Structure formats: C-alpha cells, structure tokens
C-alpha cells in the first residue's frame, strides 16, 4: 500500500472512529437523562408519600383526641349522675371538685382537638395539591423517558452501523498500522494529524529538517513530541515542492 493511500485509509479510520465515539457520547447522554427522569419520578413519589404520611399522622392525632374527649365526657356524665344522688355535703364537694378538674381537662382537650383538626385540614389540602402536581410532573417525566428511550434506540442502531463501517475501513489498513493506530487511540482522540506551518497541528512541535524532507516525499511519520502520526497533505506537498516566489 502506497503512503498516500495509507494516509487516506488511516484518515478514514480516524473519522469512522470519531463517529463511533460521538454516537457513544449521545447514548451515554440519553442514558444519563433517562436515569435522571426516573430519579425525578422517585423523588416526586417520595414527596407525595411523605405528604400522605403527614395526613395519616394528623388523622391519628385527631382520632386519639376525640377518643380522649369521649372518655372525659363519659367520666363527667358519671360524676354528674353521682352528684344528683349524693345527700352529704362533704361528698358533694368532693365530686364537684373532681368535676371541676374534669371540666378543665375537657377544655384543654377541646382546644387541642381544634388545633389538630386545623392541622389535618391543612395537611389534606397540601396532599390534594401535591397529588395534582405529582400527576403533572410524573406525566412529563414519563414523556421524557419515552422520547429519550426512542432516541437511545435510534443511537444504538446508528452505533451498530458505525461499528460495522469502522470494521470495514480497518480491513483496508495493514494490521501493523491498525495496531499502532489502536495503541495511539488509547492516549489521544486524534492519532493522525497534518503538519501545518512546519509543526504538528496537535502539539505544535516543530518538525526537524530530516523529517520534513521525508514528509515532503509523502512519508508518514510519528511526531517526536506527542507521537501522533503526522503527514503533509498532497496540497502541502505540492506547495513545498513548488514554493511561490
């Protein structure tokens, strides 16, 4: 294989590989966004669940206080009936004192129950609002996931085709150069570059005279600084061979 043809095939291989890597990045981006939207759905559901738990806790507090109120009311009823049957003054005073204490307990319980009902009402309103918001959010997230999944599938198909194309291009390059190219790809994303202005266009290292002579003849060399494959394009070779005066 002539050097110009080798340069052309390696350039094609580099372009094919760059296309593969670009598609891989798109796939990775889609995958990350799908994960992000799924996480957002989980977070939205956790928020809704927390609000539901707050309603349940508020309802339990109301239920407990209502039960306490019933117990107090029952005690008060029993004492009132007892008071009607008492004939002795001292016993009556003792019951009245107990009734006074229970009355205070009832008032405290009623105030606590009123506050508990307010908390429950507010919690239910927040939960209802959160349900509506959750429905909108999760619907949007599911739409995003559906769209991203379609894109992911499309990119996966593109990647399969790009990999097949890269493999075909690689078959046109001698194995020795393919191995050298792959080794270089592990270090840099652009293993083959042109010489521009007498320097490597990647690291800007100036080409030494003896290498410059070989490049003018169409050879492909390794940069003495970054070790990328370097070459002169046919246009540059003609310009070097026929400088304008």
Protein architecture, described:
By secondary structure, the chain is mainly alpha-helical. The chain folds into two domains: 3-171, Helix Hairpins, CATH 1.10.287; 187-241, no CATH class. Helix content is 79%, strand content 5%. The protein has five helices and four strands, in the order αααββαββα. The chain has helices at 3-85, 89-171, 175-185, 209-216, 234-241; strands at 192-196, 199-200, 221-222, 229-231. A four-stranded mixed beta sheet has the order 2-1-4-3. A hairpin with a 2-residue loop joins strand 1 (192-196) and strand 2. Helix 1 (3-85) runs antiparallel to helix 2. The protein is rod-shaped, with a radius of gyration of 41 Å. The model has no long low-confidence stretch (mean pLDDT 91).
List key phrases describing it.
245 residues, mainly alpha, Helix Hairpins, four-stranded mixed beta sheet, 5 helices, 5% strand
